[in-house]
Design goal:
Blueprint (H helix, E strand, L loop, with lengths): L3 H11 L12 E6 L4 E5 L12 H11 L5 E7 L10 H10 L5 E5 L5 E4 L1 H4 L6 H4 L2
Parallel strand pairs: 3-4
Antiparallel strand pairs: 1-2, 1-3, 4-5
Pfam family, one: dCMP_cyt_deam_1
Keywords: Hydrolase, Metal-binding, Zinc
EC number: 3.5.4.5
Length: about 130
């Protein structure tokens, strides 16, 4: 699948990050099952626990609009290497994806890797574990 637009949106929203403490900007863009794209950046806080990551911001934006089926997510942090989502974000991604969801780790518009949830969060704790 062609994810150029999704990658561009992640790179673009990265520039809006509020990262005065870490100076580590992150952008994410998600495309949902209905084709709508939502984006988000990291938003830091002096109380680090109140910080929200770009991946969760993008997913929460989609869910707020009624979209709950993640088709793909593009994530960009450091543009010299691939930035993987943190553990909390991996768990949130797993809540709204399935085994076919593409997780795109971006350096720039031409360099990115595509992974699946089992690649980045093997043995994830999911709602299947709660409903028996």
């Amino acid at each position: 699948m062609d994810y150029r637009e999704l990658v561009r949106k992640a790179l673009e929203i990265r520039e809006r990050a509020y990262a005065p403490y870490s100076n580590f900007k992150v952008g994410a863009a998600v495309i949902m099952e209905d084709g709508k794209i939502y984006s988000g950046c990291n938003i830091e806080n002096a109380s680090y626990g109140a910080t929200n990551c770009a991946e969760r911001t993008a997913i929460f934006n989609a869910v707020t609009e009624g979209n709950r089926k993640l088709k793909a997510i593009a994530i960009v942090g450091d543009t010299t290497t691939y930035t993987y989502p943190c553990g909390i974000c991996r768990q949130v991604i797993s809540e709204f994806c399935d085994e076919d969801t593409d997780i795109i780790l971006v350096k720039n518009e031409k360099e990115y890797l595509t992974k699946k949830i089992d690649d980045i969060l093997p043995g994830a704790f999911t709602k299947k574990d709660l409903i028996k």
